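Repro:
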Amino acid sequence: MTDAIKTWLSNAAYGLVMRTLFRAATSPDVLRRRFERFGATSRGAMVQKHPRLAFADHTVGKLAIESVCAVPSPRCAILYLHGGAFVFGSPASYRNRAMRMSYRCRAEVFVPDYRLAPEHRFPAALDDALVAWQYLRALRSSLPIFVAGDSAGGGLAISLAIRLRQLGATLPDGIIAISPWLDLGPCIVDHARDRWLTPRHLTQWARYYVGDGDPSNPLVSPAYADLAGLPPLLAFAGEDELLAAGVRRLVAAARRAGTTAELCIGAGMQHDFPLTLPWLAESRRAWELLATFVESHASAACGLESATLAGV
């Protein structure tokens, strides 16, 4: 089977599954149950397959955080904010993805179980992300720390960095945003090649999270934010996904603001492609870029810390 055929078949199957199970009109409770059945993996099953895999539980007030480490000596820590339109998703349904990120980036990965909409609207998810960041900063103070996320979690990762900048707090050493959802305002532009997401999906799910709030608030929608002074950013988008145009605009705006920003567009790919279709050539390329980004900025952070300690 050629790579082109494999790519087409994989994306077609992905779209069929996602549009069947995760419709715009599907209730939040059903979305959650389906996503957990579709993605959740037990720790025991993972450790049986990967005996060196290490899990740990962390609690900060009412916020639970699960960490996973697939390498004996992590060179950095990653706060990973899961996707799911602010409505579904959990550490359990992201274990395989967190393990892959841990292994690829030689990192210890922390996944907070942040509160979900519509029961908990903005700023609940952002508040929980901030608590998780503060906890991780204290827990792994000797390591470079990155913030990453996909879809809603990708936008949330950028919102967290903006909030930290507002507070004058220590910023991450880098941000990784995979198919980030950046504008929670009304979606009126369709993309016929997106096999899952439609304007109706985004409009309905944004309503769950934003409620009567202002979708142009930069902490809700990073598309409206001043991106100056943020950490280096690496963003991914599938060429054929609805969110790709927004990701392109964000990277261009970050560069104009003087923020280092890299963009990887997966040719012919769909939403979250490095996570959902990791066996494809475009996804393998994306993971290589991601690992290189982490290695480069982790090394830079360690070099800066050494220089500071030496009084340079």
